[in-house]
Amino acid sequence: MVTRTARERQLDHPGRGEIALADVLHALADPVRLRVVRTMAAADSPMACGAFGLPVSKSTCTHHFRVLREAGIIRQHYRGTAVLNDLRRDDLDARFPGLLDCVLAAAAGDSPAQ
Amino acid sequence: MVTRTARERQLDHPGRGEIALADVLHALADPVRLRVVRTMAAADSPMACGAFGLPVSKSTCTHHFRVLREAGIIRQHYRGTAVLNDLRRDDLDARFPGLLDCVLAAAAGDSPAQ
DNA sequence: GTCGTTGTACGATAGACGTCGAACTTCGGT
DNA sequence: ACCGAAGTTCGACGTCTATCGTACAACGAC
Predict the structure, then answer these.
(1) Nearest partner of B87 among B51, B53, B46, B48, judged by Cα
(2) Which pLDDT tens digit goes with each residue over A35-57?
(3) How many domains does chain B have?
(4) Residue numbers of the domain that contains A101
(5) How far is A1 from chain B (nearest CA, A)?
């Protein structure tokens, strides 16, 4: 007999030390993904992919969240049929101190109305 | 009769207020361009394109410098046959405070041997 | 003027990227 | 068992991008 948590579908995440700057910058350079990150930074709890109201199809949505996950910017785990998304603030701050906050502040200045 | 400075070939640069975050992030997400920016940040005076010793052809070089210029990251002006490149530190800091320094610090942490 | 240096302009090309729709999987609820 | 909700997978598509080589232009030096 197996516990529920051990049977959860698995998603690959880079370790904290494996997060690469070029990947992070590339991931944040897309308007849709930057919007996701801004929304997540403003939220107080993990959000499902569908909760962002993105102006793209479901498959494109999947694509963007995978890019963010593989860049090490977000953590994803299954919760029933949904996928909960979480900003990897600690890891990002440890690897590239201040970078996330700078980008968020810059984004706020660049287009205040998210 | 026209003065020399007025006859210089002109390059288009975005105004300080026109610098867009997505363009900046996209420009910095390329290894060759990030290396250029790091080298320029470490230099104390403007450098010609050829002085960076980039591992790409001349035409590719021209391409990368144009991307950086159009993103508002560098300023370019002709000096004889050469083009001098200069980091737009002031404009970048004014538009996106701290961003450039964060990225430079992150790059130093990501690959210390430039 | 001629020549070498420095960079630009112009295709061309191969690969990456953002986007979609249709079919499928997984899970919770009834 | 069935159905609907939430994502994923799998092509397919057009566009953007990084790269190159060749030909060309601007300038300094001789």
Answers:
(1) B46
(2) 999 999 999 999 999 999 999 99
(3) 1
(4) 18-108
(5) 44
